[in-house]
Amino acid sequence: MQPVKIGLLGLGTVGGGTVNVLSRNALEITRRAGRGIEVARAFTRSPGKRRICPTEGIELVTDPWQVVEDPEIAIVVELIGGTSPALELVMRAIELGKHVVTANKALIALHGNEIFAKASEKGVMVAFEAAVAGGIPIIKVLREALAGNRIEWIAGIINGTGNFILSEMRDQGREFSDVLEEAQRLGYAEADPTFDVEGIDAAHKLTILAAIAFGIPLRFDQVYTEGITRITPEDVRYAEELGYRIKHLGIARRSGQGVELRVHPCLIPARRLLANVDGVMNAVVVRGDAVGPTLYYGPGAGAEPTASAVVADLVDVVRVMTADPENRVPHLAFQPDALSDLPLLPVGEIETAYYLRLSVADEPGVLADVARILADHGISIEAVIQKEGQAGQTAVPLIFLTHKVKESKLDEAASRIEAMPAVKAPIHRIRLETLE
Ligand code: NDP
Ligand code: HSE
């Protein structure tokens, strides 16, 4: 049988990795897919640039429409990133009846609903395993392997760059900006790295995971998002003293009232496996009602780990290209007419425990006053540490761990505490999850 011709939109880190994996493992891939997969054309803005892959045998074009409009190309692989021109190119490919593989989480999180509707209308597949957690096959797990479960919650480290930065800062005492530069050099970071460090990339990924886990539409605009830029070395140290690690997590949880979707730094007990996931590695815990908690671990970014997911999607698409569209695995796991519109909870309704770091005047009664305000708001304290003041400093750090509290209650208590004359700076808060 003739090989399937594919076209690459983008020949950077992931595009280059994909060419390398397809060529190195061509024989195995053909044996799995039933047909060879041939990169016929690839779009790049700069054909003369040095790349991580050979380009012999691939027609390089500087106009992406020459890939999409090529009648010989059956599968378009979008590896440009962002939403424009990626969205226009993908929609046109679908319109022309081509299947699409993409690693672009921003595209799926923001425009997936319209992309999948169009793909269903045209009977084509849009596969996006590489969009979440790099090389970890978490989309397939949620969509297929756990299909018998009611998913209760998901918690994951889903941004490799952010985890790499936090790990290097903690273990090597390196500066934030220095580690970020290294992540960019290694090809881990997004074109705009604020997406990594401000939690936007993780929020894109969480949007996708939640849709597939709970059978809800993609709703990126309703994810509560905080990044890692405000984490200080002293918070990292105090957390360790209390037996916790700070990780940047994406959490999706279904409760009686609706669904929580949140991305933020979080203290987690140091003994949890997730607390020990370091560097560019990602990990996702999924709790299903039948299977219980399951953990998926692997590289969250990088050329070949991501290419591993892109190529797996290509093999999937080639295997089922000729199958009746009605009998394929639905894009978002649930049948399109069976999506539910569970309400998404505002962040004030979310309950978590908290790490609170206060900077207070070193004088008697302050600890008792803060504890009283917390008690007035029904917030119970799990642990307190009061640190010695440094010579010449009038304020000392006072750290509390609380039990679970509704966020709106904590906001009220925090406003009262911050109004105390003895409290010298806004409270530094980080949520805490035991992940039990
Ligand atoms: P790169 O920046 O390495 O490559 C992007 C490619 O797209 C390059 O070929 C570039 O052209 C081209 N390109 C970039 N911007 C534009 C634009 N505005 N218009 C037209 N072409 C453009 O990106 P990555 O390979 O790292 O990422 C590609 C996609 O994969 C993104 O969606 C990213 O989020 C996702 N992803 C990346 C991972 C990683 O580890 N890097 C992991 C998982 C997903 P030129 O060749 O001329 O530079
Ligand atoms: N910038 C992303 C990360 C790439 O660091 O996780 C993988 O999606």
Which descriptors apply to this entry?
six-stranded parallel beta sheet; 17 strands; 24% strand; elongated; binds L-homoserine; 436 residues; binds NADPH dihydro-nicotinamide-adenine-dinucleotide phosphate; alpha/beta; Rossmann fold; Dihydrodipicolinate Reductase, domain 2; eleven-stranded mixed beta sheet; 14 helices; Alpha-Beta Plaits
Bound molecules: NADPH dihydro-nicotinamide-adenine-dinucleotide phosphate, L-homoserine
Question: What is the CA-atom radius of gyration, in angstroms?
Answer: 24 Å
Shape: elongated
Query: How many strand segments?
Result: 17
Number of domains: 3
Distance between the termini: 51 Å
| CATH H-level homologous superfamily name of the largest domain | NAD(P)-binding Rossmann-like Domain
Provide mean pLDDT, rounded: 95
The helix tally amounts to 14
**For this structure, what is the CATH class of the largest domain?**
Alpha Beta
What is the CATH-assigned architecture of the largest domain? 3-Layer(aba) Sandwich
Helix/strand-derived class? Answer: alpha/beta
CATH topology of the largest domain: Rossmann fold
Q: Low-confidence parts, pLDDT < 50 over ≥5 residues?
A: none
Largest sheet: 11 strands, mixed
